Amino acid sequence: MARRRKRHDGNHPPEMDERWAVSYLDMMTVLFLTFVVLFSMSSIDAGKYDQLKNALATGFGQKLTDLDDRQAGQPIMEPGKDAVDPAHPVPPEDTATQPPEPPAQEPRTAREKLEAIRAGVQSNLKAMNREADVEFAQVNGALVIRILSGETLFSPDTAALSDSARELLAGITPVIEAEEGTVSVEGHADYLEPRNYETNWELSADRAVQVVRHMVDAQGLPAASVSATGFGDTRPLDGERDNLDRNRRVDIVVNARDDPATTQKTPDDAAEAEARRSSPQATTPRT
After folding, report:
1. 200: Cβ–Cβ under 8 A, 6 or more apart, which residues?
2. In this structure, is residue 131 part of a structural domain?
3. How far is CA 182 from each of CA 37, 85, 124, 227, 229, rounded to the nearest angstrom?
4. Who wins on pLDDT, 214 or 78?
5. Is the pLDDT of residue 69 over 70?
6. Domain membership flag for residue 98
7. pTM confidence score
8. Which of 8, 16, 111, 267 is the most buried (most CB within 10 A)?
9. Are residues 155 and 236 in the same domain?
10. CATH number of the domain where residue 231 is located
11. How do 134-139 and 142-147 pair as beta strands?
């Protein structure tokens, strides 16, 4: 049936059809929401994203749920012990600035250590131009550092260290400490009767003690590795008893030990040594 148009008389204006406005408002709403979504996605923020998601879901009549990845069937990966916190990243290691590890030191014998002490002391004395004040000797497997010039260490009839003596000991003590040597300081005197001491025994012992105290207190040598002994005038240098200045001296006797790896014996060596001790009469058969 054909729709009849309404007729308008001349006294009333025609009525305006405003149904187009509904479609227009719907389109503007969709455009507005589209730009809001685009703006939100341009700067992603987890909290704002969730708020926008929930607002859109509510606006479109959907029911909010608390489903997470675990409820949706997706496994959640737990961080391992080596996981890095994004807020506190670990800076990469700069291998170029790390000092290289020192090479492992080979085990040494006591003889090698004493040779190293001798070489170190000689080098220090050469730098101080004091080589003439010291002599070296090997006695019963020990290194003897003999300070001969009496005026270098002590004045006659005294045990007080001179400034020259302190300088000389400063070139000796650090080398001994570095090699972990044990020290016995032996004090000596000339044969003249002392005026400030009862006998030369006390004088020589006091000289040795003064050297030990300076090496320990002023130069840091471990006290447990040092001892002092006085010999009075009983051990003058061979053929130089009348040389009072040279016999007014101090001997620094240094001992060292082999490193454990250099003295370790194999089980066969130990068994052979035990067999020899248990059968002293054994002889080698003739060939």
Report:
1. 189, 190, 191, 193, 194, 232, 233
2. yes
3. 83, 54, 20, 9, 14
4. 214
5. no
6. no
7. 0.54
8. 111
9. yes
10. 3.30.1330.60
11. antiparallel
Quote the distance between the C-alpha of residue 27 and its chain's center. Answer: 73
Q: How many residues does the chain have?
A: 287
- Per-residue pLDDT reduced to its tens digit, 194-225: 888 899 899 989 989 999 999 999 888 888 88
Task: Give the SS3 label for residue 140.
Answer: coil
Phi and psi at residue 269, to the nearest 5°: -65, -40
How many angstroms separate the CA atoms of 240 and 82, rounded? 76
On whether both 126 and 252 belong to a single domain, the answer is yes
Confidence band (pLDDT; 50, 70, 90) for 64?
low
Number of domains in the chain: 2
Cα–Cα distance, 268 to 287 (Å, whole number): 24
- 41 and 149 in a single domain? The answer is no
Give 45 or 143, the one with higher predicted confidence. 143
pLDDT value of position 7: 54
- Confirm if 110 and 141 have CB atoms less than 8 A apart: yes
Q: Are residues 121 and 42 in the same domain?
A: no
Q: Which residues contact 124 (CB under 8 A, 6 or more apart)?
A: 171, 172, 175
| pLDDT band per the 50, 70, 90 thresholds, residue 287 | very low
Rounded Cα distance between 187 and 229, Å, is 6
Specify if 25 maps to a domain: no
Give the three-state DSSP class for 252: strand
**pLDDT tens figures, 129-164:** 888 888 898 888 899 998 876 566 777 778 888 888
Asked if residue 270 has pLDDT above 60, the reply is no
Angle at 112 between CA 111 and CA 117, to 5 degrees: 95
In a domain, 83, yes or no: no
Domain that holds residue 52: 30-59
